[in-house]
What does this fold into?
Amino acid sequence: MFGVYLTHPQVRIDPAMAVPKWGLSDLGRDRARVTAANPWVRSLGRIVSSHETKAMETAAILAQAAGVPVETDEEMGENDRSATGFLPPEEFEKAADWFFAHPNESFKGWERAIDAQTRIWDAVSYILDRHDPAVPIAFVGHGGVGTLLKCRMTGTAIARDADQPAGGGNLFAFRLADRAVTCDWTPMEFWQG
It folds into this structure.
């Protein structure tokens, strides 16, 4: 059976609001609905989301199609960037480049990439260690920690070139039997399972 790690799609950016509280944009919501119509979503026996609004909104759309509840895990949250607060897109991209290039250092008070990787790996591993490998599962979260998780699962160094394409709403899949990654980042609405 399969597992997927899925990143939330496009969000409504509001510089006056804390980033974890941002919700999906109309485009993001539409993409999640299109994804929910895919047969693989209906086969999910479990959906686990980070606690941030945009991830929970994505998970809720998938869960409705799958007929399962959404579980949440605080340890699956995005890397903590609260030290800098909102950064305009161009500045954020430069900061993200630095974050991935210097995984053992903190960018202006951000959670270090190596620490965020350990946190997401431990959270996902804890869940999978107790999960029935015959039941498909989806983890819904964020691109930064998703990339860190994918790097850990593939045994590759933390690097920005392993990051998902811009815009979010991508997934990578893995086998539950051995946790081997079976597909690279793919737009969530196009993956066929």
